Amino acid sequence: MIDLEQLRDCYVTTPSKIVMLVVDGLGGMAHPNSGLSELETARIPNLDALARKSACGLTTPVLPGITPGSGPGHLALFGYDPLKHMIGRGALEALGIDVELRPGDVAARGNFCTVDSNGLLVDRRAGRIPTNESAPLCERLGQIELEGVQLDVFPVQDYRFVLRLRGDSLSELVSETDPQITGVAPLPAQPLSPEAVGTAQVVNRFLDQAKQLLAEEERANMVMLRGFAQLPDLPAMGKVYRLDPVAIAAYPMYRGLATVAGMEVIPTGHTFADEVETLQRHFNDHDFFFIHYKPADAAGEDGDFDAKVQRLEELDPFIPQIKELEPDVLLVVGDHATPAVLAAHSWHPVPFLLNSKLTTGEGIDAFNERTCAMGSIGRIQATQVMLLALAHAGKLNKFGP
Amino acid sequence: MIDLEQLRDCYVTTPSKIVMLVVDGLGGMAHPNSGLSELETARIPNLDALARKSACGLTTPVLPGITPGSGPGHLALFGYDPLKHMIGRGALEALGIDVELRPGDVAARGNFCTVDSNGLLVDRRAGRIPTNESAPLCERLGQIELEGVQLDVFPVQDYRFVLRLRGDSLSELVSETDPQITGVAPLPAQPLSPEAVGTAQVVNRFLDQAKQLLAEEERANMVMLRGFAQLPDLPAMGKVYRLDPVAIAAYPMYRGLATVAGMEVIPTGHTFADEVETLQRHFNDHDFFFIHYKPADAAGEDGDFDAKVQRLEELDPFIPQIKELEPDVLLVVGDHATPAVLAAHSWHPVPFLLNSKLTTGEGIDAFNERTCAMGSIGRIQATQVMLLALAHAGKLNKFGP
Asked: What are the structural domains, with CATH classification, of chain B?
């Protein structure tokens, strides 16, 4: 939606304020015993009361049947077509550990591995060495100097790290070096397009030096690189929608996704209470706030139905605190479903509500998958949520004469 | 959907099995007396019971208001955008009588006609001569030899036949020779594009020789050709979705449509009981089964409401037989609606159900247009059905990191 040139003149700046609360992994599925979903099981009186005064519906993050990762799930909510604007794995991994990525930087997922005296892979994960072993090795790799390229290596966890290359004319179109099996040598990086020849050479020089620097290590004596990626070149959300948008998120990946969309990130603490406090403190300074609630997704991914119910119940008391700020539009949306019964993200449409002074209720008495399916907004693409928010906030003028 | 390059890496081969039962002309409209549709009138306890344990919805075959032919209706269900991948009339006519078409072949619909001594059309249908008269004439036309082109003529019914041209560099971009009125001469074929010059010459040589061969006939003394068409060049369904898909269909056209989608066709008998028996016998050998039920459409086309009700009731007892095979996903879908009150295909959305171990029911108590409109899947494009089936079968990995 954000790409629609035809709408560019409709967006208008006003003092009204929009809060978009993204509940990560919001949607769920019925528990086989009760026949009720996590949202239907949870005691969430404030969300239910809000739904009674809201316009509700279901969002399709990408397409029916398509299970989105966090990247596509969030980009869609910000209005970007997730099939058009893809975030590569290396870039998302970097964003997930708060590594700054600038346009043109190439990020890759790296991992330490073990090779034998002939250079053949013995263990693709270097015995899963712990972070306290891998972090100093990352520091050592960071010393590597390559002409014309700034190089940084950031530990992620255990045997995993991020390589960031910064320089002119770098390309993400470089092949992975992990052969996915043991007994063979790691692959050299190869250019997947003519413009990537230089980058592939840089990567191979890095790998050569890494091998030498790690030669004496018992387990982590080599590295492999995957998922070379640059940031997608997105139109800035604030510029297109004529907003001053900010992000408040305790987890680095979601701050990263917000910066990809051109949002400013406001530093906050580690809990959702910290995030709400940050929202309160900065509420006068901006007109669009993306605030992220992570715990529901984590519990869903763990396959813990009761924990996901509890995480939703823990979110509920914050709703009145956010409402007290009197945003002109309050959205409660999800980037995707994470049904505990699947212990994973899923393709199911995600309930959402939009509360504004124009929403006086529609006979829905609770906030969940079943009720939102009956909501007045119906089923929409997640990319269309922003348009509705802008409309309810008086920020979207008439289209066409 | 099948064209979406972005999803190519999401498809994964697994042992799970999908059965797609296409009930031709499934959807209907309310009878003016009862206010109930064919599905609502029919006693279909097994379909109703299945719907209670399924996710339901409505498919839009092409666009709201657009009535699809059998070609677009089926291609959409297999995932092909029917506005992008069109099957020409000649090709569909050929598929409908089991004429083998290879890539590059050009097929045309032919009909015998009557011309006067000046070569002007007197009867565009040659007095609707019966098949037993036209079949020997088709054999005679099949004797025509044209340099560099293999030529075959297949009787269809009454005055209609199919001409198949096989050779190098043939093109479908040739104009029709039927002027649509009498009192004028049949038109010569003309190339509609430079690359069709050779094909138009071949066609005109065929018409010249046909005229000579038929000169002594009283009624069928000339032929006209329409709907020149080659097979569309579709990505094979099995290759894109990483499936081993097969088709079981008693009627040739549906076998033909399946081969266009790259499916293997399993020979079967003339009844749906034969088809189900074929499904049972081959169930272990493949992972995707398209099985086609024709009679509901035929009754709808006849405008016979009661007969369509009966054809749906006759389908119902086969549902438990298919369920007994324990497919991981069972789809009951329609290629389009054929309301008996219209005695024709129609544009109405078509009810469908998707049954898997993840569908535990959604409070729907019957399988028909009205209930499916309340289904948890909602209204989707028919092209999206395959994505949902693959998702429920565990054959569709997460999109994006």
From this structure: 5-86+233-392 (3.40.720.10), 92-229 (3.30.70)
